[in-house]
Amino acid sequence: MHSNQEGAADRAFPGRVQPLDSRDRGPDEASSCGLPRRRRRLDASGERVVVAHSSSCVLWLHAAARGMKQLRYADRVLLVAPPSGSVLARFPEVAAFAPPAPDFTLPGPTRLVAGDDDPYCPEGAGTLFAEPLGLPADILPGAARLAWRPGTTPGRRSWTGALRW
Predict the structure, then answer these.
(1) How many helices (H) and strands (E) does the chain have?
(2) Is residue 109 a contact partner of residue 77, using CB atoms and an 8 Å limit?
(3) Average pLDDT, the chain
(4) For the segment 29-85, what is each residue's pLDDT rounded down to a tens digit?
(5) What is the pTM of this model?
(6) What span, in angstroms and rounded, lies between the C-alpha atoms of 76 and 78?
(7) CB burial class (10 A; 0-12, 13-18, 19+) of residue 99?
(8) CA 125 – CA 128 distance, rounded (Å)
(9) In angstroms, rounded to a whole number, what is the distance separating the alpha carbons of residues 74 and 63?
(10) Alpha carbon of 65 to those of 5, 81, 102, 131, 145: distances in Å?
(11) Are residues 142 and 88 in contact, defined by beta-carbon separation less than 8 angstroms?
């Protein structure tokens, strides 16, 4: 989920998704982001799942390509609607942030989900990402850009398999 879409996961899957910080927000959250408390909860919690959407997928792939050891702490990773380098190249602000060459191994179980007609990945996420990296993928026909919009619930642009994954 995009961090700027607070509550999107809860609205989409009421009672089934619990963001890390949903239990205790206090005045110190604004100044320190509550990182020490969040890290303690992470250390004590169960499975660690990363859900990366759009450019966050590219960030995760860059980290994996560089062999960042911290990535091994994720038990599972879901890459949702990664953009292609050709699309990023059209925007000067992110043109240099193209996805890395897929010549590396991801550090753990990773799955990809994307629409087959995503305008931000016209070459196809299966072709650009899933096949070269050997990832299982769910390519959704006619789903376009998979994203939740603030104030909406999942519909045509959602992946209902997220809860089974």
Answers:
(1) 7, 4
(2) yes
(3) 76
(4) 444 556 666 666 666 667 888 889 899 999 999 999 998 877 677 889 999 999 999
(5) 0.70
(6) 7
(7) buried
(8) 5
(9) 13
(10) 28, 19, 8, 16, 25
(11) no
Token digits of residue 153 = 């619930």
> Are 135 and 164 spatial neighbours (Cβ–Cβ below 8 Å)?
no
Torsion of the alpha carbons at 58, 59, 60 and 63, rounded to the nearest 10: 120
CA–CA dist 6, 114 (Å, integer): 22
Q: Which pair of structure tokens corresponds to residue 47?
A: 């499975």
Task: Give the containing element (helix H, strand E) for 52.
Answer: strand 49-53
Helical H segments across 4-151, by residue range:
8-12, 28-32, 35-44, 55-65, 85-88, 125, 131-133
